[in-house]
Amino acid sequence: MLKFLKGVVAGSGTGLKDLPYNIGDPYPSAWGSWSHFRGTSKDDGSPVSIFSLTGSNPQDGHLAAGRNGVKRLRTVRHPNILSFLHSTEVESFDGPSPKVIIYIVTEPVMPLSEKIKELGLEGTQRDEYYAWGLHQVAKAVSFLNNDCKLVHGNVCMSSVVVTQTLDWKLHAFDVLSEFDGANATATGPMLQYEWLVGLQYKPMELAKSDWAAIRKSPPWAIDSWGLGCLIYEIFSGTKLGNTEELRNTASIPKSLLPDYQRLLSSMPSRRLNTSKLIENSEYFQNKLVDTIHFMEILSLKDSVEKDTFFRKLPNLAEQLPRQIVLKKLLPLLASSLEFGSAAATALTALLKMGSWLSPEEFSLKVLPTVVKLFASNDRAVRVALLQHIDQYGESLSAQVVDEQVYPHVATGFADTSAFLRELTLKAMLILAPKLSQRTLSGSLLKYLSKLQVDEEPAIRTNTTILLGNIASYLNEGTRKRVLINAFTVRALRDTFSPARGAGVMALCATSSYYDMTEIATRILPNIVVLVIDPDSDVRSKAFQAVDQFLQIVKQYNEKSNAGDTADAGSLGISSMPGNASLLGWAMSSLTLKGKSSDQAPVATVNSVMPATIATSTSSPGLIETPSTASAHRVNSGTDFADQPMPPSPTSTDGWGEIENGIHEEQHSDKDGWDDIEPLDEPKPSPVLANIQAAQKRPVSQPVSQPKPQASTSLRAKSTVKVAKDEDDDLWGSIAAPPPKSASKPLNVKAAGAVDDDDDPWAAIAAPPPTTKAKPLSVGRGRGTKAAAPRLGAQRINRTYSTGM
């Protein structure tokens, strides 16, 4: 027979022509005269099992019994009975006499004896798995005996196979017959093919062919004996040699021993019904059986039972046999989640079980279910997916993220729940590297633009952190357009001090993306203001940032002076020592939680860190949920506590169309930062306004000019009270040198001259020319008086034409 099958496989390469399956390698054992082969479908390559029976004579009794087994297997359906797929009978002329071969194709299975050797279970885990397998076989036997009134006749280890999910299933139906106990006058054999059963597996009445006693016995009498033989074989680890070996009970578990003895009772009428064995036996009451049974009837459980079960399942799974968990529980759990019968808490157990798989198996068995769950409208499921995204996000392919995952995740940006908005924001830390440039620029940045003015301060802070983290994934044009605007115009002006600190750190961490002009004209002026911030942590970061950017500019200057202009513009964060990554911001300093309000006091990070630090498992670089924040007040002794705060980011700052137009402009190429002109002068903060006001005051005035009114007026308007002499000392060191050319006295004013303080452009006016002392008013409509030179730092980042 093996020679024939080998010839078939070798000759055609795909098996028999009329069999739509390929025949593979044989297993070393099978029931009776059958041979068991591995196989695959010719259509899709899915695995199957192929059983073959060969006979030299068409009237051979083995073939007749085989045909009976095929018919019974095709018609009897039960979860614990081998699933039938296909059968065929072919005649082959190999040698002097023809041969008849019967093929049965079933679901992929392995002989029980081979699977037990492969698993190698021991101790409690072995007993639990055996209990689950015997429970399944007992249900199949009970179904045949009690429901169908059929007698299997040959229950033993050889007639049990194991599926890929480690379920035990009953097969070998060649001897299967109807139980005709009601026919008292019948004298012939009830089991037509009982001669196929080995003598060691026959109860005494069957061995004696006492059909009258068999017909008077219960329908389960013969198969209960066979189940006892199966119990002996699996626990002893050997094949039953004779009936006397059944008396050796040393290997039988004590909890199962009473039922084992009742199954093998010498009196057929006293043998234990297999249905009673399932219901009453203490042996079947264990964690594995209870867990699998709960999963199989999950749809019948209420929500409270489900929630309680799935919360315990992660810890319970560690105590169960690992192979059973991965091959049995994991598919059940994935299926229940996919079809909605499992609660959202089941996702935790699914991912924990999935962590025990190899990366390839995880992608095949877990990821498809997770991806489908993103389309769920259940908010609890969405929250669970986002909370655990760090466990599976790296395994998602870029195409799946861009096409299937992100469109569903993005709905969380506009969710009414601040907690869900924050989780969605944190998830982008893992998903953003896998998004296409079209999605990054056309969709994600629009949402981040809106989140930077969110009502929750923690969300605004985390948005700044996220932008700093994903900056490397943006193209150069998008970085130029977005980063400085987002970090300076919004983050540095936020009323929430950790948000301002995050803006400073984001600028430092992305310094390699800015050229010297941007650093000198747009970044440093905005950071310098924060060195007098009311929050000490922000001030500390601002000083560090100023030092860092000044060092970059110095290095650029040194390289420019040395003539090395090729590398002069490439200086950035990499050249500066001691810069921590953005992922550590929230854990180190951005742990303050609370809601922003224009009237709410600003709390310093240092004052609240011990009380507000929390651990985040999904993203350690992001601040925790703002909804659980506690209020903290600023220390009354802080030097800058009486300083007014910068304007709120939620105020009108030229972003109105973005705040209200995310959904209306989905097809626009703008990303939310385009309406901020790169060179627009931002409105100065009150602290900076005080400095500018001081710059506009003249250093010295003639004695003849009255000062009390001006002094009184100035002090009434300014919160910084400094004496005249102190003003001279304060600004003298940075005052501009006097012009070298001869000119009229600075304090001489012609009639009709315009006051310098009323000229909005005077602060950035160019110094007077040195070639000729010519009044600035000539040709400019300002009268005949020359403009006084301005003291202090000169603004040189703009020029204007004569038409202004």
UniProtKB/TrEMBL annotation:
Residues 698-709, 741-753, 761-775 have a biased composition (Low complexity). It comes from the Eukaryota. Residues 615-657, 666-685, 693-804 are annotated as: Disordered. HEAT repeats lie at residues 366-404, 523-561. Residues 615-638 have a biased composition (Polar residues). Residues 2-284 form the Protein kinase domain. SMART domains: S_TKc. This is Protein kinase domain-containing protein. It comes from Hibiscus sabdariffa (roselle).
